Amino acid sequence: MKVMNDLQDRLFWLASEREIKEGGVTDSYFLNTEAALNKSGRNPMVTMEVYTRHLPHGDSWGILSGVYEVAKLLEGVPVDVDAMDEGEIFAISKDSLAYEPVMKIKGRYRDFARFETPLLGFLASASGFATKAARMRVASGNKILLSFGTRRAHPALAPLIERCAFVAGFDGVSNICGAKLLGIKGSGTMPHSFILCFDDQQTAWRAFSDALPPDAEVIVLADTLYDEKTESIMALNTLGKRLSGVRLDTPASRRGEWKKIIEEVRWELNIRGGRNVRIFVSGGLDEKDVVELRDVVSGFGVGTSVSNAPAIDFNMKMVEVEGEKSGEMVPRAKRGDLSGEKDVYRDLSSCVDYLVPAGSRTPEGASSLLKPLIRNGVVVREFETIESLRRRVMSRLGWLAGRQIEVRVVS
Question: What is the CA 173 to chain-centroid distance, rounded?
């Protein structure tokens, strides 16, 4: 085997947009499939459905994301695609074989087989980020949520992670490329290394404050060298009314009873006239931490739990195939799957989703979740603004609060 000392056609181990668009990131067995189908002269019309039966969290719902990328991937490919809306909630059934397809693709199999790998990758990663971010939004209530996690992920994914977090209800993102594409200003305070560049914390805080516009909020790290209470008092004494907030980023090994420490900081700030100084916390936070602390802080900086969120285990399965002799579409699926094209309808009032054979009568009071995305390679759905997607997710989370979606099969 020839060992490469350096890459010849790129700087990083990254696929280019062109390679993705042309199916160059597929799995090799799809190329074998193409070659065998081509040699046999077989290229049947098929219907395939994208779904998952398993979610990495305790609840039975997820947030669909990555639809935009799939539309761009399959644009120009001679297929028809129906999909749930970006930002829509999808559900799984823990008690039956039933599953909700979040997307359906129809076309001649050889024309799009190689795109299965990137298509599933787009949906799996983006939906994983968005689902975890939405769960953090629910856990935090109405407290400020900032996305701080892109340093824990491949930098090529940074804009996607920030998009998913913001659409799922985060109030700001720290990554400047992600913020740029979202059309918002990046959020952030300072790293501990900034404090360590000076002889003491007070000098660092003053330098930071002096570098900001007069009307900008000054939020400082208050746990670099001393304990949280001591540094928070020091910050208030140093900056006075210029201090907008303190961020506590204490590592887990030194936190002790974290909530009581924060309550102590709050008390000490209040009795010194710092009642308006907000307290933010960050550093390895997950849902249980956010639930525990949301009553004593103003906001959270959430990182790894979103940027390293587990992917949604989507599959893409064939459910109908054009008969080799009859030329008609025949229900067909591998064992363990339900054959035949399906539709999904939702009754918002009863919190019931209906899984039905395609073309069945619409259940009373329900509306279709699968809508046209592509027709013969042409994207027929208008892409929504980030704010529109964000409103959808917030609306769905409000609708779902305290309830579970029942997936009901009507055959």
Answer: 13
**Residue 236 and residue 172 share a domain:** yes
Complete DSSP assignment for 257-309? SHHHHHHHHHHHHHTTT-TT-EEEEESS--HHHHHHHTTT-SEEEE-HHHHTP
β-pair partners for 43:
none
Contact between 119 and 316 (Cβ < 8 Å): yes
User: What is the Cα 228 distance to its own chain's centre?
Assistant: 32
Same domain, 292 and 169: yes
For the chain, 411 residues long, the average pLDDT of each consecutive 10-residue run is 78 95 95 94 96 91 98 98 98 86 98 97 98 98 96 96 98 97 93 96 97 93 94 98 94 79 97 97 94 96 96 96 91 91 96 95 95 98 97 97 92 84
pLDDT at 59: 85
Give the distance, in angstroms, between the CA of residue 211 and the centroid of all CA atoms in the same chain.
34
pLDDT at 97 (0 to 100): 79
What are phi and psi for residue 12, nearest 5 degrees?
-120, 165
CATH code, domain carrying 273: 3.20.20.70
pLDDT at position 4 is 65
Indicate if 285 and 375 belong to the same structural domain.
no
Cα-Cα-Cα-Cα torsion 231, 247, 153, 63, nearest 10 degrees, comes to 160
Q: What is the DSSP string of 130-151?
A: HHHHHHHHHHHTTSEEEE--GG
- CA angle (273, 278, 279) in 5-degree steps: 115
Of 266, 292, 307, the domain-final residue: 307
Rounded to 10 deg, the angle between the 201-211 and 228-239 helix axes is 50
pLDDT, residue 166, reads 98
